[in-house]
Amino acid sequence: MSGALAVAGLRVARGAKEILRGVDLRVEAGEICVLMGASGAGKSTVLRSVAALQPFSGGSIDVDGFALHPGPVPRESRLKGLRRKVGMVFQAHALFEHLTALENVTLAPVHALGWSREKAREAALALLEELGVAHRAQAYPRELSGGEAQRVAIARALAPDPLMLLMDEPTSALDPARRGALGETLRELVGQGRGLLVSTHDVDFARAFADRVGILSEGTMVEQGAAADVLNRPAHAATRELLRGPEARSDTA
Known about the structure:
The protein is of the alpha/beta class.
């Protein structure tokens, strides 16, 4: 399969502080890659850089042929190609509170991609149905449960039919049953040929659903490989510390 995402030598600095120090990462279409590390290791920064939500200072990012380069984030008008290839689900869902679930899902296709409202609505309803929340299409975010809001956020990210889906701490605030249901949903999505890059502290989730795992420590990718190898036979001290520390337990906060 073709590579959905290739990150090479990614560097991000904030003032004099380096947040990422030359991160290399590849995610193939059809696989779930989990990015792990202690709080502040740079996991969310990798995701935000790939989604062109922040600038980076060195290296390169390629999403299915769409290249991002160091320097200021390009104008949104130049990112339409990327928006068709990458969808992002934020940790706190980030749904617009004044819009219904259906309106949240149709917003980007209409305003960013120029779809007709009819086409966007048809696609949104199909996604909500696929994700089991079509009956909540007219509900506002405050009326949704945590699991429902997350599925609406996934539908919104999938509306442009991206090859690459990014998810930031998707299991936080989910109970074990909902974590499992989410994992099964993600496996179905990669079965459709997408690549998924997921940042998480949740070792149980990574063991159950990840194909590959990368470990970040202080802005550096210290270890990556098949999930079973990294999580069962960790080679780096940072990985061993992560697995035995309090953050290795399923995140329920």
